[in-house]
Amino acid sequence: MLQNSNRHLMGDSLASLTVKELKQLENRLERGITRIRSKKHELLLAEIEYLQKREIELENESVYLRTKIAEVERLQQANMVSTHEFNAIQALVSRNFFQPNMIEGGSTGYPLPDKKVLHLGYTHLSPCLFICILSRSNIED
After folding, report:
1. What Cα–Cα distance (Å) separates residue 75 from each residue in 67, 70, 121?
2. I need a labelling partner for 35 at 20 to 30 A (CA). Which of 17, 60, 83, 103 fits?
């Protein structure tokens, strides 16, 4: 009996069925298809909901990462020598204002700046920028 039912559902051995039995088989198939479509629809909606949540998470992560990149770039720019400062250093170097061994950290006739200055907040400055700042203070004095 079960084998015949499966064959009927597959569309085989239908010749022996009456019109009433064919109609019942058709109704069973339509109900089955309706349940299958309903389940498929439910799964698709769940997948769409998951993907929408994931999209929001990725957008938030993207905003966070862009903010971090901007912050890092801002910090890098703050630590870089500006064009004006670089030109000032180049001008001093071209006039031999700095002795070569002074730039390289060798001994000079000039007293070295107090190392306490470096520990009070200037540790992030590049050596060129630090020299430029010292030069400006010497020029202004």
Report:
1. 12, 9, 15
2. 17
